[in-house]
């Protein structure tokens, strides 16, 4: 009985981890697309003399 509970808990843990990794992949893809769009649509007036794309 304890082995069965252990196997079920392990399956639940790995299933939950797989779902979390799937969501993290989608978030990473969205962030990467926004990052590339930041390069494409960067303004020429807001950058400094070197035309930086970030605003630190």
Characterize the structure shown:
The protein has one helix spanning 2-40. By secondary structure, the chain is mainly alpha-helical. The radius of gyration is 22 Å and the shape is rod-shaped. It has 1 helix and no strands. The relative contact order is 0.07. The model has no long low-confidence stretch (mean pLDDT 78).
Provide a concise account of the structure shown.
It contains one helix and no strands. The chain is mostly helical and about 55 residues long.
List keywords for this structure.
mainly alpha, 70% helix, 56 residues
How far apart are the termini?
58 Å
Which structural class best describes the helix and strand composition? mainly alpha
Any idea what the radius of gyration is? 22 Å
Shape: rod-shaped
- In helices, the fraction of residues equals 55-70%
Oligomer: single chain
Low-confidence stretches: none
Major sheet attributes = none
Mean pLDDT: 78
- How many extended strands? 0
Draw up the topology in text:
Elements: H1 2-40
